[in-house]
Amino acid sequence: MTLLVIDLGSSSVRTLLFDDDARLIVGSIRSRRYDFATDRTGCATTDADELRTLVESCLDEVLAQPAAAAIRAVGMAAFVGNWLGLDASGAACTPVFTYADTRGRGEIPALLGALADDAEAYHQTTGCLLHPAYLPAQYAFLQRADPAAERSIRRITDVGGYLYRVWFAGPAPMSLSVASWSGLLASARRDWHWDYARLLLGDNLAEKLPPLADFDAAQTGLREDYAARWPQLRDCPFFLALGDGAAANVGSGAVDDSRIALTIGTTSALRVVKDIERVPAGLWRYLVTADMPLVGGATSEGGNVYQWVMEDLLLAGVQLEAQLAARQPDAHGLTVLPLLAGERAPGWRSEARGTIHGLGRHSSRLDILQAHLEAVALRLSMIFDSLAAEAADVMAGGGALQSSAAWARMMADAFNAPIHLLADAEITARGVALMMRRSLDGVALDAEQPAIERVIEPEPERVQRLQAARERQIDLYQRLYA
After folding, report:
1. Alpha carbon distance 321, 419 (integer Å)
2. Among the four residues 46, 156, 379, 457, which has the most C-beta atoms within 10 Å?
3. Nearest in space to 3 (alpha carbons), one of 75, 55, 66, 77
């Protein structure tokens, strides 16, 4: 029997097949690349129906494979936060707003005013901070910038819920995992915080929030035209979407507080499954499922920084990995804030932007690349320190990190902790497969351990050099954004 996973990333959509032991079936990946629509105003959206077309074409292809003849269940991971509005007919009437959309930054002062300066209580209750990455600021922006579009909304949903609405011809709940990334979920109660929804945005939004359910509230009974198109899936359960970060923790084997998951894809995050009384300053608390709280921090920088330096800034057609690996830390003398898309954790300054300090005529492309990759590692090291989990193993994965051993070395030295580099490149999709197996068969999430490619130990001299670089980075940040 086979498990089918739909992975909705922020730069591609993919379908993958796993066997009953949650092992990827070789040759089963089908994918389509896409980009968010962005502009200088901070827009970062995508079109729901274009995304649906890409997903459906991947499903058409993967279901033609022999291994897809006996699919047990379908699961999904989706980039979060994401949301869109549906009109009275159930059609998408707004674009999909994404975590990268910062146009709501101008709404933050008014939202903070509505809280009467009690932002800390909001942080502890919802697990989130008031920031343009979350639903309250984005919805407030839509109300102001396009009131006609806002009035046309009858229901809020997420990308996964929208796909299921189309495929099953009826409304689908939002998973607790996805909702916990919204900034309006009362984490302890596992329900919408109706008071905050009304306080911040009035009845307009509160009346449009979708029903909630846990991951395993599966949808069944495809609409007739889709059942004819995908006969193998006619009676399969489709599990609700998991947040991609939550799924990556499970796929990394970080399912309790003995392990921290470090994931570097387009963006970056550090997360630990842990039940805590108070959320540390600058971090968030989301949910994997109702019984698995997730504490951590995410940055808007990751592989996108490497891509920007190599493709847009340097236009380099050469491979620099070997030279990068041979260099001493902080050999460039530059201080970088790699905030190309604004800041999330730990400072949450959405107006912050990338900065390179110390450039001279001697600065090389290798200097600039190394400085930016180290800068990302240093930013993440601050989140690592805030998690206060020195005894936990760091399980590191994500395509951007696995493609550069030099960058993985920087992480170990910046954290002053061993990095367990995962061999599996598909940790997010693997996490979904493991979650489905737990729900279907009761198999423990840690029954199958992820393969470790190697363990990278920090080196004291390198650690010391990067600590000095981190102090310079903190000083530059404070001078610009204190």
Report:
1. 19
2. 379
3. 75
Neighbours of 278 (CB within 10 A): 9
Would you give the end-to-end CA distance of the chain in angstroms? 56
Q: Mean pLDDT, consecutive 10-residue segments, the chain of 482 residues? A: 95 95 95 94 96 98 95 97 96 96 94 90 96 96 96 97 95 97 95 96 93 96 97 96 96 95 92 93 96 95 88 73 92 95 89 93 92 96 86 88 90 96 93 97 94 95 97 96 86
Candidates 388, 396, 221; CA nearest to 296 is 388
Q: Do 445 and 438 form a contact (C-beta atoms < 8 A)?
A: yes
Q: Tell me the whole-structure pTM to 2 decimals.
A: 0.93
Residues with Cβ < 8 Å from 478, sequence gap 6 or more? none
Query: Please, which residues have CB within 8 angstroms of residue 189's CB and are 6 or more apart in sequence?
Result: none
Degrees (nearest 5) of the Cα angle 236, 241, 246?
A: 130
Query: Cα–Cα distance between 94 and 377 in angstroms, integer?
Result: 36
